[in-house]
Structure prediction request, 327 residues.
Amino acid sequence: MLAASTASGKAKRRPEITSWGRQNTNSDRSFPNKRKTRQCGRGEVLVNRILSKLEIEMQPGMRELDTAGIAARAGGEVLSRYFQTGVIADHKNDVETYNLVSVADVEAEQAIVEVIRRQFPNHAVLGEESHHDDAKSEHLWVVDPLDGTTNFVHGIPHYAVSIAYYHQGKPKCGVIFNPSRDDWYEATAGGGAFHNGKRVSVCSSETLDKVLVSVGFYYDRGEMMEATLAAVRELFHAQIHGIRRFGTAALDLAQVGCGLFGAYFEYQLSPWDFAAGVLFVEEAGGRVTTSLGEPLPLRKTDVLATNRVLHEQVQRIVGPHLPASMR
Prediction:
């Protein structure tokens, strides 16, 4: 077991989340205002309490993006509470004792799914913790209630809720939310990518010696770790400005879309890790494929995201190092 706390043993005070989305009056897009609550006729007490606290009312006929936003806010409220007080984590198996899960992950997913099913009771949900519907369902929500669990457990405020809605196998909208910073990333198919209400785009760099590259390490500390390190070494030889490893795939992808990174790669991710982030990158003008340049499947896979211009340059480096187990 592992507990996150301050050196003094007292939980640190962190900003309280009080609304869905951040109002940004200086941008070309803003999020909906808060609304007074009415009690839902059904659902878990947890979600009723969260929606009441946040003064959010779910309206009949709400579109998928609005539902995703409220669901992310509900999940984020759960995470914020545990992040303030500290949380006990366990490992998912006895071999990978560094592959962590906590009650915060599970409770946040429950809150997110409850919000979705109040609005869309017949839609399927593919989640990291406890919802494993068919990924080929016509209407599918792909949910990561806490991307960056290790950061979260250690008190590092770099983690996210990630929610995407897929229709007939295609992403239609996605939301990524870092509740510790009230930081919002959203995208809709054909509608662009937005960070805190402001439209964003990938960087315009044409050569690797002009960019930072982000990387993720899967839990495997054998072949996959060595392959990742080999690719990083070769990227350094290509004179990149540097490597960044922040431990939250959804936010790494979002930051490619915002133009902070020229590229991001990881040799194994699950659909909930990348579903919303892929749409965000693409709507920001970037490109996302496997490390070999193939279309990304909605299952465990390797992921390469770039500003599009650099895609083949990065692919020529990371593709050959892809572990045989992922080919």
The longest helix spans residues 64-85.
